Amino acid sequence: MTFQFELIATDGRARAARLSLHPRESRTPMFMPVGTQGSVKGLTSKQMEDLRCQTVLGNTYHLENRPGSDLMKELGGLHRFNNWSGGTLTDSGGFQMVSLLDLAEISEDGVTFQSPIDGQQMMLTPERSIHIQNGIGADIIMALDDVVSSVHHESSRFEEATQRTLRWIDRCVAAHRRPSEQALFGIIQGGLDQTLRDVCVEGAARNDNLPGYAVGGLAGGEEKDAFCRVVAQCTASLPDDKPRYVMGVESTRVVVCVYYSVCSALGADMFDCVYPSRTARFGTALIPEGVLRLKTAAMASDYRPIDSECDCMVCMQYSRAHLHAKITKEPNAASLLTYHNIRYQMRLCEQMHQEIVDNQFGQFVGRFIRRRFPEGHVPPWVRDALSLAGISL
Amino acid sequence: MGGIVWELDPRFAPAEGESTARPGPRLGTLTTTPWDHPGPVGVPTPMALTYTRRGEPAHLTPDNVDLLPREARTFHVSLAHFMDHLGPDHVSNMPGGGRRYFGCRPTCMLVTARDPLTFDQDAKQSNTDAHTFVASPTGTTKITTDDYARWIEAIQPDAFVALADESPSWRDGVALKKTKQASARTEKWLAALLEKTKDLPTKPSVFASLQGGADVQERRACAEGIVERHGTQLAGFAIGSLGAGETPGEHRRSLLRASIEPTPWDKPRYVAGLGAPLDVLDAVEAGVDLLEASFCHQCTTQGYALTFPVKPPTTKDSKKRKRGDGKDGDGREEGDAVDKKSAPGDGDGAGDEKSAPGVGEEEDANRRLLTGGDAFKSNMWALAYRADKRPLLPGCECYTCERYMRAYVHHLLQCHEMTAAVLLDIHNYFHFNKFMEAAREAIGAGTFAEFAAFHRERAARMDGDDET
User: Fold this and answer.
1) Contact B162, B193 (CB under 8 A)
2) Residues B46, B154: Cα–Cα separation, whole Å
3) Distance of CA B51 to CAs B37, B124, B377, B397, Å?
4) Which residues pair with B108 in a beta bridge?
5) In chain A, which residues have their Cβ closer than 8 Å to the Cβ of B94?
6) Mutate: best of B418, B423, B427, B430, partner A, most A CBs <10 A
7) How far apart are CA B464 and CA B222, in angstroms?
8) Which DSSP string do the residues of A116-173 spell out, in sequence order?
9) Best of B64, B415, B416 to mutate (most A CBs within 10 Å, chain A)
10) Which residues in B lie closer than 8 A to residue A38 (C-beta atoms)?
11) Where is the composition biased (Basic and acidic residues) (chain B) (predicted)?
């Protein structure tokens, strides 16, 4: 088994760790940029290395549509295909079924849905999901889970989904053909129900064949404090010696970096979000104070860099004014802004890692949050979540 | 900054006691002093300036430009792209001067009014003595010499081509009167711009635009007049009104010669719009020193990878070929032989990854034609590349070819991923600069005629349109 998770330091509930992946290790806490179809929008793999990206995500659903996992396998797998020597992770394909397709029907067997390409009925079973992910060949693969929107109204549906997710984990483990090369993560479901989450964590934690866990079923429109409570509960009861991945911080939330810091404080190790690269293409840059909207008229005469503390190429060489004139018009401006936004998040994660190692994480998060919310307007959910982590602002 | 210096390689200077150099291809060096470099930066000519949108390559970030040969930081800048509501102050207010506005940090910027890819002079509005029109981001926009001078001051380029009343040389029946009027206006605007920009602290070099439409006599007269009346104030000459859809061939070559011959041998000549490889050969053959590479940008946006051999195969390559089929053919038989052997395997794309450029090139080109490419480029959208593990051009040393396979670029195009254009642009600009380098080598070795003949014959053979 090449996959290894090694805790370097803890500070409160926060953890700094090393993930040994083929061929390069990743460090946590870690934000994982999303390369849905095998590339992070507008960036080359050399740029991803320059940005010191750790692990990059690919979407099983999209990659199976194009180029297809069989072809991907023939071409040498995802690493070879997109020339990426860092870590890779694919999801189960289940989430896109919910997010892209209204016509999904879930049964004990799997998820039936209509192909958006030719309208055919297709079936995604746990076995099929693992087969596809084995073909794509990412370092970390995810078990197929029964996803229910966290704000769904029927509690019986959550119960069913929780139990089914556990049964499907067993089927995924049994179907996994490359356990020595690919780490299979189990997913914790249970909506916002504490009892169900406990049942799911307990069931999944008993399974020795899962080198890591993901907290799923969130990012569906639930309240921010509910989100944090679930993360706090799951990270508290999941095994310490395995990584914890909080899946898909909701993409419309501009406070994405606050989420990362809060989740890290609560003991989560991995996160992903499409917001930073998507919003870049629409002209929004991440900065320590929050976000900078480069399309606004004021930016036309602002000759400062996006973020004067940032060490990235864009902040060294470009002014806000220049980017204002080009963003959403010229493609290289989208690449530039994506570049900065990813570097911003990688820097935040590097900093968190170091602060945890130095046992200064509490103070760091305090400073980080206060800067985001000057004049003491820290939202209650942030205060509450951090107090769950033993950090008082 | 402080303008450009262009020096002719002494081998191409007039012989002792003579005042004119012999016509034809020539070598030189273009030198500038960029603000962010400790000393001057020289690039060899003939070379092709990188095509830009609003002052920077459309798809490439500065770190990607770093992956290209040094010449690629010599930018062609179209003023038309800037003429939106932001105005020149938006650029010139940059602390330290407008040149610092350009994060890509070109070592040389040459500004012209129009975009080489769009010939706006066909607009319905007619130019007057006071203004011409350019296609700006917000539509067809009027531009005067005052506007132009203000923009030059704002952008701080190393050189610019004076505003020109371009009269396309492809329209039959453009009255000679109109062509003459265009020459007169262009000269008037040149005089105005020389006056308006002479005190700029950045001392940009001025290129005069040489007009004369499709009329050889008028081309010559225009060039002679400008050289005579303004020659001493000029850093170079731009051959105008070409690349507007005219037919390539002997007539166009005669127009190029007519514009070039009256110009002094020690000043560089620039031409816009002649960017396709065969056009480049015509221009360089006529003595052009600076071209622009909008052709690369065009190929990239259409999903093409440049895949032609930059120079004739070396003796070593031909020996290898001869051994391959036992014939002492001219390459055509060789190509057929290889084709027969490997055609069945082409579909699955399991090609050999080690083949050097030139080897198996013909059979590749045959397949290229079937998949929407031509003698110079491959259509990476084509399904033939779906499972092709080879680099865009086997043997190419660019970043894209060293790290990615055709199947990946094809996949990115199919998925409309922005990275497709980035990878194609890196390859296309790299390859095109290698082509220019090969042209310079041939000029230096005195073999440019063979070099040009190789490319022309190859294109004629493969595309079946031998215009020579």
Assistant:
1) yes
2) 28
3) 22, 26, 18, 22
4) B74
5) 303, 319, 321-322
6) B418
7) 37
8) TTT--EEEE-HHHHHHHHHHHT-SEEE-------TT-S-HHHHHHHHHHHHHHHHHHH
9) B415
10) 408, 411-412, 415, 417
11) 325-343
| Omega cis (within 30) before B23 | no
CA angle, residues A35, A112, A149, in degrees to nearest 5: 65
Domain extents in chain B = 5-301, 314-320+346-462
User: Where are chain A's structural domains?
Assistant: 3-280, 285-374
Dihedral through CA B253, CA B254, CA B259, CA B263, nearest 10? Answer: 90
Q: How far apart, in Å, are the Cα atoms of A105 and each of A94, A188, A272, A366, B372?
A: 11, 21, 26, 45, 42
CATH topology of domain B5-301: TIM Barrel (3.20.20)
C-beta atoms of B102 and A322 within 8 A: yes
ipTM comes to 0.97
- Interchain contact, B61 vs A37, CB within 8 Å: no
Cβ contact (<8 Å) for A83 and B403? yes
Contacts with B330 (C-beta within 8 Å, 6 or more apart), sequence order: none
Tens digits of pLDDT across chain A (393 residues) = 579 999 999 999 999 999 998 778 999 999 999 999 999 999 999 999 999 999 999 999 999 989 999 999 999 999 999 999 999 999 998 877 666 666 678 899 998 887 777 777 888 999 999 999 999 999 999 999 988 877 777 889 899 999 999 999 999 999 999 999 999 999 999 999 999 999 999 999 999 999 999 998 886 778 888 999 999 999 999 999 999 999 977 655 557 889 899 999 999 999 998 888 889 999 999 999 999 999 999 999 999 999 999 999 999 999 999 999 999 999 999 999 999 999 999 999 999 999 999 999 999 999 999 999 988 889 999 999 999 999 998
Closest of A123, A67, A135 to residue A94, by C-alpha: A123
**CA–CA distance, A341 with A362 (Å, rounded to integer):** 24
A chain contacts of residue B57, beta-carbon cutoff 8 Å: 332
Name the residue among B84, B405, B423 with its Cβ closest to that of A44: B423
Answer yes or no: do B419 and A67 touch at CB < 8 A: no
What homologous superfamily is domain A3-280 in, according to CATH? Queuine tRNA-ribosyltransferase-like (3.20.20.105)
Nearest CA to B256 out of B285, B225, B228, B235 is that of B285
Q: Which of A285, A323, A289, A283 is closest to A303 using CA atoms?
A: A323
If you search the block for the tokens 């926009």, which residue do you land on? B141
State the Cα–Cα distance between residues A21 and A130, nearest whole angstrom: 19
CA distance A116 to A100: 9
Residues of A whose CB is below 8 A from B389: 75-76
B127 DSSP 8-state letter: P
What is the rounded radius of gyration, in angstroms, for the C-alpha atoms of chain B?
23
Residue B408 to residue A82, Cβ atoms within 8 A: yes
What one-character DSSP code corresponds to residue B47? Answer: E
Please give the positions of A annotated as active site. 91, 272
